[in-house]
Amino acid sequence: MDQMEGQSGDIAVTSANRKCYAVTGSARKIKDNAADWHNLMMRWEKLNEEGFEVAGNIVNMRLTRSQSDQLLVDESSSATSAPSASSALWQLPGRAPELQDECCKLQDVINKMGIVVMKMERLVTSQRAVQDLEEFQFGPEGRKFPLFHSWDTKHFEESSRILLESFCQELKLKQLILQEVAHTLTSDLCMVYLSCWLHQPFIPPQTRLILEALLLETGHRPL
Amino acid sequence: MSKPALLSLHQALRKSFQGLESNQKVWSGVLAECSPLMASLGNLAEQWRALSNVQLSNTPLRDFPDLEERLRFKLVQATDTVLCKLNEKMSSLQSVRDSISNQVTAVFQLYEENTDSLDLLTVTERSVTSPSISDMLEWLQDAERHYREQFLRRKTLLQTLRADDLSLLESAPKRWKSFESPSAEDRITDTLCKVSFFIKSQ
Q1: pTM of the prediction?
Q2: Which of A24, A77, A101, B186 is 20 to 30 A from A162, comparing alpha carbons?
């Protein structure tokens, strides 16, 4: 079924190019966004693995030290100070520089994860812009025929928002772990922090499925 | 004394020992692959235990109200994945057990069919290059029993494990390790040594 677009800046969606050989305009943007989502999620996974190793080191150092020195953390003083891992460390007498190093490494990982989330926010904004353009061109109902196989443009925006929400929440959790893990004395709670980091409770299996669906729809994966 | 019966029995014995040799390698390989999986299981059990010992509402994690439920879900998923992989390994072990059992059964069947033509002297006669038939039958039977029992113990252990039974999960790696039987494995290796000339001869 042929459809001619009257407006500029959008592709003529014909049955020939619906298979995305010469994808331009809105479809190009959406397809590129899908690729970006994939790359960003891969980057996140890598950072997660890196961070887990560092967090594990921190816990090991913390627990061995507390066992051997029988130190008690001055909880009241660390509670009133600014909630950052490095400032809490200064409260503890004779703190090993290695622990400080590991905390800095973990902070670094979190910073990089923050950048990933920021890029994800941009993808959602970009998707919103595509949606807005479509509403401008075709009215509130949007275009009549899907850009790819079956998804309407709103679907892309919804999927992006769900993905962003998951990663935002997960980042908040990881920031908390960063703050707490270096001055938690009980091994059980340390283990729970490590579990949370590793298993990423706010990134459910559906996240992976949404990405795969996105890649299938935009032609990155063969049907 | 019937020559054909003796020859065919010898042939069957050779085939069984050759099968035993390759199966022993497969078995050891699969068991080695199970070790990291059991370690993962132990690690997950530790995580479960830690989570059950902590009251999340008394920790900074209280700011994430549905965290516990989500973490439990992830731990269940991870535990199920490991148990699935272990079950796949069990299938491989089962194939080894079945292969050995079938071959040993076939040899004994052949022996039973020919007991009329194989007198006691023949059956207990040994030479420099060839152990006696009675010894070889005994060794095969011992090996078959060893793998049958090993498989049964390990399979039973895995079948009792569930993601929601913490104490069983915690004790599983230790119990798995307790099934190791180096002396029995050594005896099988010894057996294969003893029959090595016999296998190569015609």
Answers
A1: 0.81
A2: A24
